[in-house]
Specification:
By secondary structure, the protein is α/β, with parallel strands linked by helices. The protein has four helices and six strands, in the order E-E-H-E-H-E-H-E-E-H.
């Protein structure tokens, strides 16, 4: 399921014109919706997917997003398998994997993607995201932080 998400028109004026585009992939529609809403309020352009095969099709199209946040365990295509498909396709997109597994070693992939354990604080997610975005788009500053646990 493709859910492009952007803030309501009244909030668009505070979004920087060069806002990073984030693709969120998780088979839990509630988590995709919450992450999409929270990241949009942080100033990101967000596209949410609950179907990893649809997300892979989107990631194979240009333009590439600035970052993909991907769940490790999903039906049809796991997070590490999605990362492998991106590598095989020659697509360079920074990936942040997330999992509710107590042992995230299942999610370790040769591409070296970081793994964020669920539940997590929004601040921790944003810090992990910015670490991956900084090499591509420079530091992002002056954005209010939401205090939410996901």
């Amino acid at each position: 399921m493709l859910r492009p998400h952007s803030p309501p028109p009244s909030q668009n004026s505070s979004v920087p014109p060069a806002a990073a585009t984030i693709v969120v992939v998780d088979d839990d529609p509630s988590l995709v919706e919450v992450l999409s809403d929270l990241l949009a309020t942080e100033g990101y352009a967000v596209e949410g997917f609950t179907d990893p095969t649809a997300a892979l099709a989107r990631l194979r199209r240009a333009p590439a997003p600035d970052l993909a946040i991907v769940d490790c365990i999903m039906p049809y295509l796991s997070g590490p398998d999605l990362c492998a498909a991106l590598i095989e396709s020659g697509i360079e997109v920074p990936v942040l994997l997330m999992t509710a597994l107590s042992d995230p070693s299942f999610c370790v992939h040769p591409g070296g993607e970081a793994v964020l354990n669920k539940p997590f604080m929004l601040e921790d997610l944003v810090l992990e995201m910015e670490a991956r975005l900084r090499p591509r788009s420079g530091p992002r500053t002056n954005r209010p932080r939401s205090a939410a646990r996901l």
